[in-house]
């Protein structure tokens, strides 16, 4: 015995136009930029948290960009050109001292220890030594932004997307 089933859809499904797809990807790109920035500010990522808010992040947050910046493209590149954003994403292996000046600036701005204060050098050097000895764990804020965005893309475009974590 053969069973048959008839299915009707009212109205029939409509495949999105190229312009609709481009508009959705532009919106998704803009949302990804904002999610990535929010994750950097909060110190949150796919690999966990930074352990505290990712402080002194104005330069890092401001560096997250989308190209092109206007709708109508088939491809959008979301990027940052700052090393601290890369370190947040993939971490830093132990073994070498990080540069003095960015840490010195952080100590001055976040801890309030003036550069002329004798404690300043000691604090900077202790932080450098800790990073040299232990490295920095990643917390993957961009990866979390992508994961959070996928549901919107699936819903808005009706596409099934997969994220493969490359480690």
Would you count the extended β strands for me? 4
Structural class: mainly alpha
Assembly level: single chain
Order of helices and strands: HEEHEEHHHH
Ranges where pLDDT stays below 50 over 5 or more residues in a row are 160-167
Q: What would the principal axes of the Cα set say about the shape?
A: elongated
Mean pLDDT: 83
Radius of gyration: 22 Å
Distance between the termini: 51 Å
How do the strands of the widest beta sheet line up side by side?
1-2
**Percent range of helical residues:** 40-55%
**Helix count, per DSSP?**
6
Portion in beta strands: 5-15%
| Structural domains: how many | 2
Please give the largest β-sheet: 2 strands, antiparallel
Compile the SSE list and pairings.
Layout lengths: L17 H25 L1 E2 L2 E2 L8 H5 L2 E3 L9 E3 L3 H8 L9 H12 L6 H17 L6 H17 L10
Antiparallel strand pairs: 1-2, 3-4
Helix pairs in contact: 1-6, 4-5
Notes on the structure:
It is a single chain. By secondary structure, this protein is mainly alpha-helical. The chain folds into two domains: about 15-90 and about 135-160, no CATH class; about 90-135, no CATH class. The chain contains six helices and four strands. The protein has helices at about 20-40, 60, 85-90, 100-110, 120-135, 140-155, and strands at about 45, 50, 65, 75-80. The strands form two sheets. It has a two-stranded antiparallel sheet. The chain has a two-stranded antiparallel sheet with strand order 3-4. Helix 1 runs antiparallel to helix 6. The longest helix is centred in the first third of the chain and has 25 residues, at about 20-40. The radius of gyration is 22 Å and the shape is elongated. The termini are far apart.
């Amino acid at each position: 015995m053969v069973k048959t089933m008839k299915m009707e859809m009212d109205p029939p499904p409509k495949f999105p136009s190229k312009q609709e797809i481009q508009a959705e990807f532009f919106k998704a790109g803009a949302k990804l930029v904002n999610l990535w920035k929010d994750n950097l500010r909060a110190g949150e990522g796919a690999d966990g948290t930074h352990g505290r808010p990712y402080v002194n992040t104005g330069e890092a947050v401001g560096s997250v960009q989308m190209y092109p910046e206007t709708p109508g493209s088939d491809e959008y590149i979301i990027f940052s050109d700052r090393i601290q954003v890369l370190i947040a994403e993939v971490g830093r292996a132990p073994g070498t001292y990080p540069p003095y000046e960015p840490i010195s600036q952080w100590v001055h701005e976040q801890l309030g220890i003036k550069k002329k204060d004798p404690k300043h050098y000691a604090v900077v050097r202790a932080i450098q030594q800790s990073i040299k000895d232990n490295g920095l764990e990643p917390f993957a804020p961009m990866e979390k932004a992508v994961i959070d965005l996928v549901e919107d893309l699936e819903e808005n475009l009706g596409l099934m997307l997969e994220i493969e974590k490359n480690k």
